[in-house]
Amino acid sequence: MTIQSCVTIINEWDIVAARQLGRNVAKELGFGTVDQARITTAISELARNIYLYAGKGQICIDKLYENGKPGVKISAIDSGPGISDIRQVMEDGFSTSGGLGAGLPGVKRLMDQFAIESIPGDGTQIIATKWLR
Amino acid sequence: MRIPILKLYNCLLVSIQWELDDQTALQFQEDLLQKIHETGANGVVIDLTSIDFIDSFIAKVLGDVIDMSNLMGAKVVITGIQPAVAITLIELGIGLTNVLTAIDLEKGLEKLQQELGE
Questions:
Q1: Residues of chain B positioned with their CB less than 8 A from the CB of A93
Q2: Which of A56, B59, B61, B69 could form a disulfide with B74 if both were Cys (CB 3.0 to 4.6 A apart)?
Q3: Which domains does chain B have, with CATH numbers?
Q4: Global pTM?
């Protein structure tokens, strides 16, 4: 069973809206303050990537229930330029925008599951999930 | 909305009370440097007690403003980092090494006075 809500990311304010949505969902599901911070931070990183690199995209937050265990699924979907070398963007410290290069490898560490698919010229889809322990 | 910067003797005090969006963070960077310039303050305490998450962008803005303040001759101490913030920052891979920190505002001011040798 999934219940989904989405935020369209076009400007910097949408990044704030996406992470507030994620924090509220995490809180509702009973995540503690540390996991709420992990989920909020992960959403912020993914939303900023859409804003910086794709220009436009969507962050969707799903409430998941698997064997009675709740979880939060973050989907970051854009139809931007895509990523030609996924291994490179998953390296700590790699950035093409003058940032810290902490984004994607950081999100992977903050969440329990992480999957990235990207087709150059077509777009990127990242799905990250955190389960309530 | 702008983050208020208070002057206390030779120091500036900043308490960030709400969630930072990108524009507010960048505006704060400029405002703080301008205030250091205007007041000749040689120390700054930035209190983050009310902040419940910091992403890599905010961390970069904070790290940069600390380096910029140092360039101008003002030392910066960060105080009140919450457990959840410390955990997520390290997991993100951001250590904010070489940044002076203290557990709360009071200890931060003490640390600043020590650093300034006063």
A1: 93
A2: B69
A3: 5-115 (3.30.750.24)
A4: 0.91
